[in-house]
Specification:
The complex is a heterodimer of chains A (about 325) and B (about 140). By secondary structure, chain A is of the alpha+beta class. In chain A, a hairpin with a 4-residue loop joins strand 14 and strand 15. Chain A contains 9 helices and 16 strands. Chain B has about 140 residues and is mostly helical. Chain B contains 4 helices and 2 strands; from the N terminus they run H-H-H-H-E-E. The longest helix of chain B is centred in the middle third of the chain and has 30 residues. The termini of chain B are far apart. The chains are: A alpha+beta (about 325), B mainly alpha (about 140). Chains A and B meet through strand 2, strand 6, helix 7, strand 8 and strand 9 of A and strand 1 and strand 2 of B. Strand 9 of chain A pairs antiparallel with strand 1 of chain B, so a sheet runs across the interface.
Amino acid sequence: MSQAYDTTFRSMGSDVRLIIEAPLLRGQLPPSEAADAQRVYIEDFARRLSRFRPDSELCALNADPSREAPASILLRTAVSAGLWAAQRSGGLVDPTLVDEIEAAGYETSKEGSKPVPLREALAAAPPTCPAQPRADARWREIEVDHERGTVRRPPGLRIDTGGTGKGLAADAVAHRLRGYTRFVVDCGGDIAVGGVGAQLQPFAIEVEHPLTGRCVHTLHLTHGGVATSGLNVRIWQRGDGSYAHHLLDPASGEPVWSGLIGATSLAPSALEAETLSKLALLSGPAGARRALAEHGGLIVHDDGGVELIGPLDQGRRVRAQPHALGSAA
Amino acid sequence: MVAGTTVITEDTMTEVPQKPPGPQTATEATEGSRDAPAREPNSRGVLAAIWLSVAIFLAVLALLATRVASGHDPALSAREAAAPLPPRRVLIRRIYEHKVIVHLPARVPAPPANASQQVSSAGGLEPSLPVTRTS
């Protein structure tokens, strides 16, 4: 068996895991040293783009009252990724919902806090309804100028790159590891797979059920990305007793209850997979089937049922056993 | 003085006659040679010359055979001397051989030709496998 270096560390509020096998050419860093270098990169990435660190570049941009603010190439790329996701999702994955997410109760990092049981939140949730984009589409007013090294937006419009940050980070690290035979970059479940060796020996990646925590399916990836969005993490109870989570309906600014509690998407990149998984979860079952039809994926309904979509569809729907749901939730 | 010189010259020519050998002289010489064996000294000389030639030939032959046997062929040496070969060039090449060894586990099926991703049946979580989950 070829040597693989496997390491896991905390960053971006999640577990980040790197699996790196042998380099293709002489002169490259061994996998362990490459992993150390990528860890430094990811931690720097997270520190500079954090919404919760006042000294981050993102917070400096959001605090800048001018219409046009200087931005590093990393920040410009992150904002561009957020705008790309908004375009790709028709405005459902909106990077301008900072006021709304803070109003919902997500003002500081949820790192270390225990999420409330999803089943309780589902029992108290309002009637399901797919999310809708904001009518004014404020994200269209954001411009990234790479020549001038600036970001232009209406004064006071804050930007959140967190919705696409992990996927972008996974893709960036995957690009930096392209000289290795086989690798996995897992940024909190947003995963990029690559290397020529993965074409011959695909990586097996398991999809976790948001209620049971069990594997509902195993994917074999040779390249590209896979990502999962769900309601079982970053979910809390507000002061008025209602439940909230981090996936908002842009039109209402409130947490969405679309009839789905989880969505997993395959895509050519982790950024696109993350965008499509969020789009699927926000869109509800019907919209999710459309969103995941091209590259494939699966959705988990409120009742725990798993549905395969697109290339993964084998014409069956797997329903979780009630006792399994109860024991794990 | 000139007349006197002429006389002396005439006297000299008279005292020492210069005449070719006549027939009598030739006959005398012929009669005198019949008394000793004429062919014997010549045969001995011829035999000696033959033996001497054979001996020299054999000696030279032996010398050449010895030199050829020891690797000193006079013909080859002459050719080398006439056209000396250029110094031999030695090219040193360093060959790098890269081998990528991929071990295929038996439990992971190869991807189908028309798709790079596929789904297998559900099962329990294996901690060694990457997991996509909500983050």
